[in-house]
Automatic annotation (TrEMBL), chain A:
Transmembrane segments: 45-66, 72-90, 123-144, 156-175, 187-205, 243-261
Residues of the signal peptide: none
Protein's recorded name: ABC transporter permease
Alphabetized InterPro entries for the sequence: ABC2_TM (IPR013525), ABC_2_transport (IPR000412)
Source organism, top-level taxon: Bacteria
Membrane topology type: Multi-pass membrane protein
Primary residence: membrane
Domain ABC-2 type transporter transmembrane: 26-231
Keyword vocabulary terms for this entry: Cell membrane, Membrane, Polysaccharide transport, Sugar transport, Transmembrane, Transmembrane helix, Transport
Coiled-coil positions: none
UniProtKB/TrEMBL annotation, chain B:
Family: Belongs to the ABC transporter superfamily.
Alphabetized GO MF terms: ATP binding
Native source organism of the sequence: Sphingomonas daechungensis
Name of the protein this chain belongs to: ABC transporter ATP-binding protein
The organism's place on the tree of life at top rank: Bacteria
Sequence ranges assigned to domain ABC transporter in this UniProt record: 2-221
Pfam short name (any one): ABC_tran
UniProt entry tagged with the keyword Nucleotide-binding: yes
Record InterPro entries: AAA+_ATPase, ABC_transporter-like_ATP-bd, ABC_transporter-like_CS, ABC_transpr_TagH-like, Bact_Polysacc_Export_ATP-bd, P-loop_NTPase
Keywords (A to Z) from UniProt: ATP-binding, Nucleotide-binding, Transport
Length: 271, 231
């Protein structure tokens, strides 16, 4: 038996700061998730971002073929890339967190693994996948001259982070709720389909009539997407958004999500 | 030391909340071996889960000044698509210990050979148990939780488990759930009998086993008869 005493003892393990332990656990869960989801066969974990890339690519091709979707001077590729990538972000993160606990419950026997770690790992993995897909497609389209470079890369980045934060908060909240109420797990997929067309994937806010726009902009992800699009091709459009509103909603969702995850931890009962 | 003060645990059922453990007070000192008896559903595994920290108690407090293992040879944490080696790697990662020496140990101890690189889903239940036990032995704890595991594997493997657990770790505290009187009698210095959510403490094995048998409804008329039957 290798002795723990020589290098890291479990005593030392308990003394590690909780941040170190958290990082270690989330890292381990992330790698486990990667392996269990994609395995080691053929291209393995590359699927992580090839899958969202193929989705985005398919949408881009379809929209480019039917130029009718929108009537402005915005390059269709840039439009599809920003719209569909943002959709993947706020739809897939909650999707991955719904019922995440059930399949990972037995891991809670390891004292340092918490419910929040399980959600964090899934959210991070999804964020990495969607971001990689977004960046890689962006570079590919740019180098093929289908897409102009962003006018303000920092604003694009900020918009992306804002979307990611929204996705993470929503994922924690929906995931936590799904542990309490089975109905939430059932309702999230149709709900996300319902929100999809409303969230600006296929149009910009300026194309909507005034009163419809005001209602649509209650959706935080629409605001974040408008902000991101302004960063990419702002000179070609008039953007409508309220970053403060998105940040406030994100903060509330994060807080609610974290406390729901805490409650899920207290309610755990593995039979 | 592990100290449970006034611990209760409720679970929701369709008929409302059910109290599985009520007002348990219990102290486990370093190096103590505590045997646990009780019929199915009496709350033995619930206690193990509470002490391991997998679940919080509904009421009361649990103080832990010792590091506590996960339930020994627990196979539930395995993911079917991961290989045996992946599962070892995962445990090493979350405990922050070196993989290589521990993997060597698991390979030798579990005797799984090339199967360590195959998905756990392809293992027989005996192979899973061997892997789980071997992984449990790679991290050192002050207190081990042992929930009905010794029935696994063949004679030779059981003997190696015994050496690993009761000889190499004879100074560690242990909580042992078992229905086997030989196993409990030979390995424990204290006994807990679970009945209807409460716990009785006993020092004397024959006394506790006699009561346990009585609670199963297959009791002996006298303790002497029972001892004779156990021979």
């Amino acid at each position: 038996m290798p002795s723990n005493k020589s290098n890291v003892s479990t005593g030392a393990l308990l003394r590690d700061s909780s941040w170190t332990v958290n990082r270690r656990v989330v890292g381990a869960l992330l790698l486990r998730e990667l392996l269990t989801r994609y395995g080691r066969n053929n291209i393995g974990f590359l699927w992580l971002f090839i899958e969202p890339m193929l989705f985005t690519l398919a949408i881009t091709i379809v929209w480019s073929a039917f130029r009718s979707v929108h009537s402005s001077s915005i390059p269709i590729v840039a439009f599809a890339l920003t719209g569909y990538s943002s959709l993947l972000m706020w739809r897939n993160m909650p999707g991955r967190c719904v019922g995440a606990l059930k399949s990972n419950m037995s891991l809670l026997f390891h004292r340092q693994v918490t419910v929040i770690d399980i959600y964090t790992a899934r959210i991070l993995l999804e964020f990495m996948a969607t971001s990689t897909s977004f960046v890689v497609l962006g570079i590919v389209f740019y180098s093929m001259e289908w897409l102009p470079a962003p006018e303000d890369p920092l604003q694009v980045l900020a918009g992306w982070v804002l979307l990611g934060w929204f996705g993470a908060g929503l994922a924690l909240t929906i995931g936590g709720l799904s542990e309490k109420f089975d109905l939430v797990a059932k309702l999230w997929p149709p709900m996300s389909y319902f929100l999809m067309p409303l969230s600006g994937v296929a149009y910009i806010a300026d194309a909507l009539p005034q009163n419809a726009r005001e209602i649509a902009l209650y959706l935080p992800m629409f605001n974040a997407l408008e902000y991101l699009r302004e960063g990419w091709f702002g000179s070609l459009m008039t953007a409508h958004y309220d970053v403060g509103y998105v940040a406030a909603v994100n903060a509330v969702l994060t807080f609610a999500g974290l406390s729901l995850a805490r409650q899920a931890q207290l309610d755990t009962s593995e039979e | 030391m592990i100290k449970l003060t006034n611990v209760s645990k409720d679970y929701p059922t369709k008929a409302g909340w059910r109290r599985v453990l009520s007002n348990i007070d219990l102290t486990i000192n370093p190096g103590e071996r505590v045997g646990i008896l009780g019929r199915n559903g009496a709350g033995k595994s619930t206690l193990i889960r509470l002490i391991s920290g997998a679940e919080p108690p509904t009421l009361g407090t649990i103080e832990r000044n010792m590091s506590v293992s996960w339930p020994l040879a627990f196979t539930g944490g395995f993911h079917g698509t991961l290989t045996g080696a992946d599962n070892v790697r995962f445990v090493c990662r979350i405990y922050g210990v070196d993989f290589e020496p521990r993997f060597q140990f698991v390979r030798e101890f579990s005797d799984l050979g090339i199967y360590l690189n195959e998905p756990v889903a392809t293992y027989s239940s005996g192979m899973r148990a061997r892997l789980a036990f071997a992984i449990s032995m790679t991290i050192d704890f002050d207190c081990y939780l042992i929930d009905e595991v010794m029935a696994v594997g063949d004679e030779r493997f059981r003997e190696r488990c015994r050496v690993e657990l009761f000889e190499k770790r004879k100074d560690k505290a242990m909580l042992i759930v078992s229905h086997s009187h030989r196993y409990l009698k030979g390995n424990c210095d204290r006994f807990l009998l679970f009945r209807d959510g409460t716990v009785e403490e006993h020092k004397d094995f024959e006394e506790v086993y006699f009561r346990y048998k009585a609670s199963l409804g297959e009791g002996f008329a006298t303790k002497e008869q029972m001892v004779a039957a156990m021979q």
